[in-house]
Amino acid sequence: MKVAPKKYLGQHFLIDENVAKKIAEQYQCHHNCAKVLEIGPGMGALTKHLITRNDLDVFVMEIDDESVTYLNNNFPELRNKIYGCDFLKVNLLDVMGASSFGVVGNFPYNISSQILFKCIEFKNQIPEIMGMFQKEVAQRVAEKTGSKTYGILSVLLQTYYDIEYCFTVNENVFNPPPKVKSGVIRCTRNERKELPCSEQLFKRVVKTSFNQRRKTIRNSLKPIVGSFQSDMELLSKRPEQLSVDDFIQLTLFVERELEKAN
């Protein structure tokens, strides 16, 4: 039995054993986390290499019923470890419990950013994220301050994770081949536990700033704080010039301005 890749699910099945093995080797068990959840395993191209690692306890989550059937029939090692549900909709505490777990996968391009945003919600439970994305997304996540591709995803991921771009994957190792190259990245949890400012406001400041990235911070933040008088240097910069620490300082400043207004 073979599973036909489904376009509406964004499935591109990895068919190169060497690439699959190389990706599986990238998971580092950060913070000694041996429990991993693979998202979207399909027919198990990556799975087969993960389960051969004696240092890992592998679980998989797959939304495609046909793929779930295939996995159950071909991977007895995963008995009672295959979850047929949508990662974006499921309560991860109900599925994975309260213990730490890593997230790995050949992520569907159409929802890869959403997967990362959900991982941020569980940042204190997910010490490592490792997998394959559209190359453009992978580069954006890993991008440093000052680049035109540095943006919302870059800042929010780098607030809590150290990002390493591992390698590029060509189109011809997939069925069907995507129209773009892929990139493998590894995100490992950094030492930042909690922000000194409101996390909700921090996200709002970051998103509002980049949504008007051609404007200076002073002008882009008007929807949040209106007009204000300050000679704070950060306000004269554009969002791509600000580091994670800069955005934290900016959020603390916005908090103070909002308190004054109230």
Descriptive report:
The longest helix has 18 residues, at 244-261. The chain is elongated, with a radius of gyration of 20 Å. The chain has helices at residues 17-24, 47-50, 65-74, 92-96, 112-121, 135-142, 152-160, 199-211, 217-220, 222-225, 244-261; strands spanning 13-14, 35-39, 57-61, 82-83, 102-106, 128-134, 161-169, 174-175, 182-189. It folds into 2 domains: 7-189, Rossmann fold; 199-261, Helicase, Ruva Protein, domain 3 (Orthogonal Bundle). The strands form 2 sheets. Strands 4-3-2-5-6-9-7 form a 7-stranded mixed sheet. Helix 8 (199-211) crosses helix 11. The protein starts with 12 loop residues before the first strand and ends with a helix. The chain is an alpha/beta fold.
Unreliable runs? none
Q: How many structural domains in the coordinates?
A: 2
Q: Quick one: CATH class of the largest domain?
A: Alpha Beta
Strand order of the largest sheet: 4-3-2-5-6-9-7
Bin the strand percentage: 15-25%
